[in-house]
Amino acid sequence: MTGRQILFLTLIVVNTLIVLLYLVINGFRKERDRKTGIIKAVVMMLCPVAGPCFFLMAYVFYRTAFSAPVSLEDVIFSKERARTFVHAEEDRERNIVPLEEAIEITNTDDLRNLMMNVVRGDIRNSLASISLALNSQDTETAHYAASVLQDALNDFRMNVQKQYKLVLTEGGDQAKYAEALIEYMNQVLVQRVFTDMEQKNYVSIMDKVCDVLYIKDREHMTSNQYEAISLRLLEIEDYDNCRKWCDRAEYQYPNTLSTYTCQLKLYFNSGQKQRFFEVLEDLKHSAVVIDSETLELIRVFL
Q1: Contact present, 19 and 27 (Cβ < 8 Å)
Q2: Global pTM?
Q3: Helical H runs in the chain?
Q4: What is Dmax (Cα atoms) for the chain?
């Protein structure tokens, strides 16, 4: 063997011994650090000499540059809260009005600029307001609103179809896909921008998705999810399925305000007066805190 071959083999053997020694030392470290150590060992094995030298220099640099104690002389530890007062932007707030009102009162040029500003952001929460612009006297604004709304609804249809297939595919991620799809669909369906027939169709799909989530992972279903599907079904007058979800919510979240309000809305709209007053009486004697919105709702019903 030549001298270069002997030197090469020597470096390989020494590098292997260093890696083995590092793995032995790494075995006494914490679980999280052991995983990092294995990766470093693989790098050192694949990069003889260069790998160990790199990690050694990095360790030395860290110990010399970052091991100095931190000076806390200028740090004040106090339990007193500091309140920061931010002055309101009066000029900007004077020009802020609800989109629905702006559509009714703005002139043509301002209305077109308003629509441009709206569609630049996330329009999923503004579909109902954009649909109001369809009746605008300005044909250009109405045409632009129709185009934007059609594109947004087509995206919704495609995404629902694609995600619904994932929800129905047997696998470990069904619950995760179902949960994401419920939130996505409710964000659009609550605005009621579809025709009655299409709204019923998508609410029916949302009902089936909720059934998948209930079967796969009912323990982690939230009261907001029960409320969302109950209200969407109530809007299309599907009282049977709405009652199903109200009963499930009552079983899993018996002392939650949304459980009571969904039942009150269901029994009022379906004309079940006796059940309505029974739920109302149960709410009065429960420990649930009633907010102003629920009080106003009860006043309207009564």
Answers
A1: no
A2: 0.62
A3: 3-26, 31-46, 50-65, 90-94, 99-105, 108-120, 127-132, 139-168, 174-189, 196-217, 223-235, 239-252, 257-269, 273-285, 292-301
A4: 102
